[in-house]
Amino acid sequence: MVLEGKVAVVIGASAGIGRAYTLALAGAGATVVAAARTLGAIGADEIQPNTLAHVVKLGETLPGRVYASVCDVQSEIDIARTIEQTAANFGRIDVLVNNAGLMTLFDPFQIRGEDWDVMMHVNVRGPYFAMRYTAPHMMRQRSGSIINITAKAGTFMPKGQRLHDGTLLYGVTKAALNRLSFFMSEELKPYGIAVNALSPGVVATDTALAANPNVRDYGAKEPTPEVLGPALLFLAQQTAETLTGQVLYTDEFGKTWP
C-alpha cells in the first residue's frame, strides 16, 4: 500500500471523478477526508448516491479510511475548517486534491456577471484557498503533493481554430487554475512540495451522461478508481524533486509520462 500512513483531502469528493479519486487513495492505504456539499444520510438502509455518506460506505472495505467533511468550495470558512480539522485530527496533510469544479456552457456573448463570479469562485478561488490553508502544514512537514484537477479546455487552441461549444468561461477558469498551479509549484518547491495539474479527459460521469447520453461512444472513461486512480496515485507520491509544475493528462499516463 503505497500511501499507508498518509493523509489526503479530496475537495469535490461526493460523486463522479472525485469519488473515484477518494476511493483510489483509500485503496492505496491513505486516510482520506472526503469534502463536498452534500452529506446524505449515514447509517440509513438506503444511502443516497452521490453523497458523502455513499463515499464513506464504499470506502469501508478498503485498506485506508474515508471520513466525511461537509464543505462548500465557494466558502472560504468551509475550506479553512475542513483543512484545519484534518490537520488537528490526523496530525498532517500529505495530499490535497482540488477536484470540485463547475462546467456550465454559455454563448460567448451572453455570460452574465454572476455567471463569471460563480464559476471563478468554484474553479479558481476555491482551489486557491484550499492550497493557502494546506500549504503551512505541508511546509512544516517539508513534504506533500497538491493535485489540481484541470481540463484540456484550459490550454491554448491552435491559431485560427474557433470553438462553438460554449466553453469560453470554463476554459478561462481552467487556464487560470493551470497558471495558479505553476505559480504555487515555484513557491512551494523549496519545501519539497509538488504541485501539478491533472486533466482526467472525458469521463462518463452522471453530469456528462445527462448532457450527452452517448458520451461513451466518444471514448469517455468510466469514473472508477481502477480507471482514473493510477495517474492520480502516481502524482500523490511526487515531491518537488521528482515531478512538479506540470499540466498532465490521464490519457497520456504510461505513454508520454511519467
User: Which stretches are low in confidence, meaning pLDDT under 50 for 5 or more residues running?
Assistant: none
Largest sheet: spatial strand order: 3-2-1-4-5-6-7
Classify the fold: give the CATH topology. Rossmann fold
Give the biggest beta sheet: 7 strands, parallel
The CATH superfamily name is: NAD(P)-binding Rossmann-like Domain
Domains, number: 1
- By DSSP (H or I, 4+ residues per run), the number of helices equals 7
- Mean pLDDT, to the nearest integer, reads 95
The proportion of strand residues reads: 5-15%
Q: What structural class do helix, strand and pairing data support?
A: alpha/beta
Instruction: Indicate the CATH class.
Output: Alpha Beta
Proper CATH architecture = 3-Layer(aba) Sandwich
How much helical structure, as a percent, in the residues? 25-40%
How far is the N terminus from the C terminus? 20 Å
SSE arrangement, N to C: EHEHEHEHEHEHHE
Number of strands: 7
**Any idea what the shape is?**
globular
* Cα radius of gyration in angstroms: 17 Å
Account of the 3D structure:
With 258 residues, the chain is of the alpha/beta class. It has one domain (7-252): NAD(P)-binding Rossmann-like Domain (Rossmann fold). Helices cover 40% and strands 14% of the residues. The chain has helices spanning 16-27, 52-58, 76-90, 113-141, 168-188, 206-211, 225-236; strands at residues 7-11, 31-36, 65-70, 95-98, 144-149, 193-199, 247-249. Strands 3-2-1-4-5-6-7 form a 7-stranded parallel sheet, sandwiched between helices. Helix 4 runs parallel beside helix 5 (168-188). The mean pLDDT is 95.
